[in-house]
């Protein structure tokens, strides 16, 4: 039986005992375990049905706690000063004395680290007094959760508890930036636009298009080719909608849909990002042929939204 908790102290006690606890961040709900407890970290993969070669993000209450586990250069420190707490994950080399279980980083010599901008998450991290490894709190490959109810739908009975934290404000996962290999490479667009990152550290390498061939080497979470997927097939860049399709609308909706969900009538990309995963869940209904998604522009948070939609549209292997 999965408990719904209101007190971070209760959730922290469960984490320290090796249990799994879902908790809200500003991006999506995460499925947390003590990152130093290998058995607890392994339980994340089991609960989600997640491949063990897919790394996890480790969450910290502040930058200095993260720097105790990874080697931070001047660029990492500048980005942390600009965007932490916030939706930016940095992939950095593990320290020789790093105490994070190797499974959390999929056995790599790097770790993905961030400081979340959510008071409940920070209170949990401080109370637990340990880094928390946490992917999104959903079954692997499925739509990410932005409310406690979404987590309960996905993982009820598989985890110990959910720490209630309200609706997630950002609604798409963190931006992931690789600083471990000399340059700066964007691994996943997310809650911090890449243009804002470049204003701090200069040019950032962009990822290859999703359809450019084989899936990339998994150096961070969120790089699986098929991900964030509803049960129904998803059609992108829709200019029309069939009577048996649901519509994921952005701006003035297309006519004729069997069911529709508005991301942002005013075409506000922040509002659209915050509503994206809830919209995919709301439209994923039996009896429909599929979901048609209207085009989303490529500026600001647009690349993050487009990335999630493209991965959701990929056929599952």
Describe this structure in words.
The chain contains nine helices and 14 strands. It is an alpha/beta fold. The two termini are 31 Å apart.
| CATH fold-level assignment of the largest domain | DHBP synthase
The dominant shape is: globular
Separation, N- and C-terminal Cα atoms: 31 Å
Strand order, main sheet: write it out.
1-8-2-3-7-4-6-5-9-10
Q: Number of DSSP helices?
A: 9
What is the CA-based Rg, rounded?
Answer: 19 Å
Corresponding CATH superfamily of the largest domain:
DHBP synthase
In percent terms, what proportion of residues is strand? 15-25%
State the major sheet. 10 strands, mixed
CATH arch. level architecture of the largest domain: Alpha-Beta Complex
H-E string: EHEEHEHHEEHEHEEEHEEEHEH
Structural class: alpha/beta
Helix content: 25-40%
